[in-house]
Amino acid sequence: MIIISEECLRKLQEKHNVTRQEVEQCFMNLRGWFLEDSRLQHRRTPPTQWFIAETNKRRALKIVFQQIDENNFQLISAYEPNEIELAIYAKHGLD
After folding, report:
1. Phi-psi category of residue 17: left, alpha or beta, with phi > 0 → left and psi -120 to 50 → alpha
2. 33-45 burial by CB neighbour count: b if 16+ within 10 A, else e?
3. What is the Cα 45 distance to its own chain's centre?
4. Edge to edge, what strands does the sheet with 2-3 contain?
5. Alpha helices in the chain (DSSP H)
6. Predicted structure pTM score
7. Residue 36's pLDDT is what?
8. What CA–CA distance (Å, rounded) separates 13 from 22?
9. Main-chain dihedrals φ then ψ at residue 33, nearest 5 degrees
10. From 9, 36, 50, 63, which residue has the greatest number of CB atoms within 10 Å?
């Protein structure tokens, strides 16, 4: 289950023009691995993880989340990735 707080959902819609449905589609369309964000300012418990996947309309999004347990994910953010993020994910996140 993808848990999205009201505050996060508002930020997704207002700042990034991303919908809950697009986030869900990215989880369903995932073709690579989750990567852990090890930067000091993004460290959390449980760890911050991310991946890049496409929506059903082929819009690439970077999905940032915490895995609460085996089946539950707390969304932190979702937005269109920049070139650096795309390169990192291509190198470390894809099969």
Report:
1. left
2. eebeeeeeeeeee
3. 17
4. 2-3, 72-79, 60-69, 48-54, 35-36
5. 6-11, 20-28, 83-92
6. 0.92
7. 93
8. 11
9. -115, 160
10. 63
Are the beta carbons of 26 and 89 closer than 8 angstroms?
no
Q: Which domains, from first to last, does the chain contain?
A: 2-92 (3.10.450)
Burial letters 50-76, b for 16+ CB under 10 A, else e: bbbbebeeeeebbbbbbeeeeeebbbb
- Reading the block at residue 32, the tokens are 């690579």
Identify residue 50 by its one-letter amino acid code: W
Whether the CB-CB separation of 63 and 52 falls below 8 Å is answered with yes
Task: Measure the CA–CA gap between 45 and 28, rounded to whole angstroms.
Answer: 24
